[in-house]
Specification:
This protein is α+β, with helices and mostly antiparallel strands. The chain has a domain at 30-127: Alpha-ketoglutarate-dependent dioxygenase AlkB-like (Jelly Rolls). It is built from 2 helices and 12 strands; from the N terminus they run E-H-E-E-E-H-E-E-E-E-E-E-E-E. The chain has helices at residues 36-52, 105-114, and strands at 27-30, 70-74, 78-80, 88-90, 123-129, 135-138, 150-156, 159-163, 173-177, 182-185, 194-199, 216-222. A 6-stranded antiparallel β-sheet has the order 1-10-7-12-5-2, with helices on one face. The longest helix has 17 residues, at 36-52. Bound molecules: N-(carboxycarbonyl)-S-(naphthalen-2-ylmethyl)-L-cysteine and fe (iii) ion. N-(carboxycarbonyl)-S-(naphthalen-2-ylmethyl)-L-cysteine (MD3) binds at residues 125, 127, 135, 140, 150, 152, 163, 183, 185, 189-190, 192, 194, 196, 218, 220.
């Protein structure tokens, strides 16, 4: 059995908004995993990496339409998308041509503690949402290794996150993700459709003065290739 928490009033904010760990097998929610001081340390480590490997605006396959979320990556592989190449993993930043910076020790440490999967993550996708940025309902299916979970960390403004089932048409639930929260998607949840409907501006002071535009940062740690 994974981690569960009781249904508290705070997890029942709106209709259909529940703790999704009651809903999808393999979903674990660790609210407030990082306290404020750990969030600041993590953000400082990210700031150094992002200075080398800046956020860029990814584009959709074929249409070339820009995503509203800006992205960069850390680690040996990074997830990218553009009109001509489509969704893929690659070892270099699409704008600078440089290798992605290493994944910070604190982040590797999180994986060791919560992933229940021995081989280290190969990719840390960093998403940056400045309202009204959002991320449509999608499946993370560009990896070869679905046995490994995806581990996510939220920093800065809170967001309204949505998660459903393995089919696009499956019913969905909504929940709030706040700064310092960790989500682990393993088992059946690994291939669940999910997205970010909106970011709530001004709900955290973490990014203020560190990232000029405020907003929300999300890290997702992924194993891309099958180990061995
Ligand atoms: C992975 N990011 O980068 S993270 C993504 O908040 C992505 O930026 C969102 O979706 C964000 O691909 C959500 C948490 C998450 C939730 C459910 C998942 C990641 C998941 C289900 C399967 C795989
Ligand atoms: Fe995703």
């Amino acid at each position: 059995m994974g981690y569960t928490r009781p249904l508290t009033p705070g997890s029942l904010r709106v209709r259909n908004m529940v703790s999704a760990d009651q809903f999808i097998q393999g979903f674990r929610f660790l609210p407030g995993y990082f306290d404020r001081s750990a969030q600041i340390d993590l953000l400082e480590a990210l700031r150094e990496a992002i200075a080398e490997s800046p956020f860029y605006t990814p584009t959709m396959p074929r249409s070339g339409k820009p995503l509203s979320v800006r992205m960069t990556n850390l680690g040996p592989l990074g997830w990218v998308t553009d009109r001509d190449g489509g969704y893929r993993y690659q070892a270099t930043h699409p704008v600078t041509g440089q290798p992605w910076p290493p994944i910070p020790a604190m982040v590797l440490d999180l994986w060791r503690k919560v992933a229940d999967y021995e081989p280290p993550p190969e990719a840390c996708l960093v998403n940056y949402y400045v309202p009204p940025a959002r991320l449509g309902l999608h499946q993370d299916a560009d990896e070869r290794d679905f046995a490994a979970p995806v581990v996510s960390v939220s920093l800065g403004d809170s967001c309204l996150f949505r998660i459903g089932g393995r089919e696009r048409a499956s019913p969905t639930r909504s929940m709030k993700l706040s700064s310092g929260d960790v989500v682990i998607l393993g088992g059946a949840a690994r291939l669940a459709f999910h997205g970010v409907d909106r970011v709530h501006p001004g709900t955290s002071t973490l990014l203020a003065g560190r990232f000029a535009e405020g907003g929300r940062i999300n890290l997702t740690l992924r194993r891309v290739t099958e180990p061995g």
